[in-house]
Amino acid sequence: METRILLIISLVMLLTSPVACSGVEGLDSHRISGMVMGHAGFVLHDPFRTLFIRDPLFTYKLYPLPPDLSDSDKRKLDRVYYPRTRQMLVDNYDVIVFHDARFQHFIPKQIHDLDYAFREAQLTGIWVFMGSFLWDWVLDISILREVVPINHHENARYFGFQVRFDRDRDPVFTPFLEYGIEKVLGNAVAEMTARQGSTVWGEIVPLNQPWMVSWKPGGADPGMQWVLIQWYLEGWWNEENNPYALDVATNMLLYSAGREMIIDIQARREARHMFTSLQTQKSIVISMMEWADAFGANIQPLALSLRGLEDQIQSTYADYFEQDYAKTISFLSSMSGTVIEISNEAIRLKDQALLWVYVIEWLSVTGIGLLSGLVAWTLMIRRRLYRQVGATRLRPHDLE
Asked: Are 312 and 174 within one domain?
């Protein structure tokens, strides 16, 4: 039983993540590694985190930071989630998303490490403002103020708006114009002042204020720094509101890394959707395997099949990273039969395990019913355990 439990745990760790290809030689160097750090109530819905989960090009680590914790408690979380040394910071991450991250508890060394990484190690920073807290409590009072491409940020307020993109900029956002991203409605705005030398990618309509600003700070090898506005579960970056939000985020990250941006938007969306569907199916299979294992079913053959499926999926990651979407989609489509077979086998194991549960329950209920009926019939109908009571009456001498 312990061996089976360990096998299940290993499978969950290896297969439930869409980034389980670290064992494939040469792929790690093509991947973009990120950290999403921020307000514990909002960071789970961050669009970049959603992208990192679904797209195998990315790996990531999540750091949910409750804003109301004391500084000492936040430092305890740092020891669990945050890189302990400068070298770990620059070696393990290509981008950090600060989603309303109130890290005013950072000691000077951590602040200087970030400043170094942004200026000298090509670390990309994406600063997502939910209001003025990140600016007032963190950036404006530290040397990181000089890293971001704005020198002022006001609190956010609800306001319906659209974005007008600058056609003269590099093609990060303009490829999506034909898909109507300028018609997408946002729901909150905040006034921010762009620094001289920064790039304003779009303006808020009708306020004519900067919506997205970026630049590379001074340094030997600086990383791109982005400032954007996002509102909790809603707004311009919400996928239900803006179907191309994840693709826009992908282009931003590819551009920041100096890589070729998306060459076929629709094909990439289809390939990413197929990867996501496969991961969902694998998660369902693993859940059924766990259920069957709990009842003693032999899941090892199915586990080997699932591992083989994962190896096949990994083999197409290289094509996806090189944006050969036609080959990726064709290969993933050809695997549908294998996925169906594995799913059917998992269902068979689950049903087999449930069959014994149903049989045992049926025998138990039937046995108890028969026994109860026998007892009732014996006592209430045949009355074999009852003794006939003789009639008694008073005799004359008993009255004297």
From this structure: no
Residue 291 near residue 353 (C-beta atoms within 8 A): yes
Number of domains forming the structure of the chain: 2
Question: Is residue 26 a part of any domain in this protein?
Answer: no
In Å, what is the CA distance from 48 to each residue of 10, 45, 240, 297, 336? 27, 9, 15, 40, 28
Q: Which residues span the domain enclosing 326?
A: 1-21+265-383
Q: Are residues 64 and 103 in the same domain?
A: yes
Q: What is the pLDDT of residues 46-57, one digit of tens each?
A: 889 999 999 999
Name which of 34, 43, 48, 97 is nearest 67 in CA terms: 43
Q: 189: domain CATH number? A: 3.40.50.880
124 and 202 part of one domain:
yes
Q: Tell whether 397 is covered by a domain.
A: no
- Strands 209-215 and 225-229, how do they pair? antiparallel
Bond prior to 206 in cis (omega within 30° of 0): yes
- Domain end (from 208, 240, 262): 262
d(CA 217, CA 197): 10
pLDDT in tens, 309-342: 888 888 899 999 999 999 999 999 988 888 888 8
Q: How would you label 171-195 residue by residue, b for 16+ Cβ within 10 Å and e otherwise?
A: ebbbbbeebebeebebbbbbebebe
Taking the whole predicted model, whether its pTM rises above 0.85 is answered as no
Number of helical H runs and strand E runs in the chain? 13, 11
pLDDT band, very low/low/confident/very high, at 23 (cuts 50, 70, 90): very low
Among residues 168, 163, 224, the alpha carbon closest in space to that of 198 is found at 224
d(CA 307, CA 337): 16
Q: Is the dihedral of CA 71, 35, 245, 332 positive or negative?
A: negative
